[in-house]
Amino acid sequence: MKTALECLACFIKQAVRAAKLSTEDHALQRQAVNEALSRVRDLKLDASPATLSAVVYAAVREITGAADPFGAVKGETNRRALHLLPDLRRRAEASADPLHAAIKLALAGNVIDFGIDRPFDIEHETEAILESDLTRDDYPVFRELLADCRKLLYVCDNSGEIAFDAFLIEKLKEHTEVVASVKSGPVINDATRADAEEVGLTRLCRVIETGADAVGVDWTLASEEFAETFRAVDIVIAKGQGNYETLDENPEEIFFILKVKCPVIAEAVNLPEGSNVFLRNRAAGKEH
User: Pick from 218, 243, 232, 257: which is nearest to 153 by CA?
Assistant: First the structure.
């Protein structure tokens, strides 16, 4: 998808948030935001918001010298998710369809996002999603395709929620082989290999890296291993808005798990802001 005019304001909010987490020096914070502003001003809106947001984080990183400003909050969200998981896991396992419950649990975790100017309450969100229907739920189609799936790629999104992803991957492994992917370096609170190790994902399945420290998937920077795996699998599950923004036009069989957190994504998926969705890629080329 292409970047909308409204995304420019979001880029600046991201710059302010990242600058404040990167340094306590007010002068450096201002300098970093000014640099981000100058770069945003010249952007052409012909790429996805996820792709263009890279200039914001690059500007803050260069000015402040902070390689991973969200590192501390990432660790905290991992610990919070791991603390909540045992009880949520028992509830999902006791449900009529544990796989579907695990998908809803993974979706609930998608509220943990520091790239969006939106407060979140993981405990409340998890309870609400587990006890309600999704706004858009392509689970019946997914189950049909899963029956013939030999290998699935799970494209992770953020720290914290990766603990819930690990539980979903555990349930998916009852049906098919699963490979998971994480970022190759820190960007916002996106999950890296360190997060995968902390929540035990590396013990569950093979974990590969996208090849970049970019939001979503930047195909110009993608590792050969990631690109080859993406093309070879039968189904891709991609978490979060950043992955939707960069993969929505791909023809592969992709299912997106995400909470609609902004009006631009709401318009793209034709659903209200705040919607919880398990959405089959419209570009997949098959109708059910």
Answer: 232
